[in-house]
Amino acid sequence: MGNSQEKDLGTRGREDTLKGRIKRVAGQIQTRFGQVTGNKGAEMKGRAKQVEGTAQSAAGGAERNVDDTLDRSKQNK
Q: Assign residue 38 a region: left if phi > 0, alpha if psi is -120 to 50, beta otherwise?
């Protein structure tokens, strides 16, 4: 992990959680826009973006949990 651009799991987990939440909200806005304008394509893309954001946020949470577990196990040694 010598590369200065690499991030530890905890930092990346927080970043993915935040990016996922932002993507989910953007998807909600796009979905609503599609509903209001009758644009089914925009509505479906917005729904897909919501699902993607939810998954990214959940993955970030899982990464943080793994990092926390690894940190605790290192401290107990």
A: left
Cα–Cα dist 11/15, whole Å: 6
CB 76 within 8 A of CB 43: no
With 0-12 / 13-18 / 19 or more C-beta atoms within 10 angstroms meaning exposed / middle / buried, residue 74 is exposed
- Cα(15)–Cα(27) distance, rounded to whole angstroms? 18
Comparing C-alpha atoms, which of 26, 30, 21, 25 is closest to residue 61? 21
Write the pLDDT tens digit of every residue in 2-54: 444 555 555 768 899 999 999 999 999 999 999 999 999 999 999 999 999 99
- pLDDT value of position 65: 85
Helix (H, G, I), strand (E, B) or coil at 3: coil
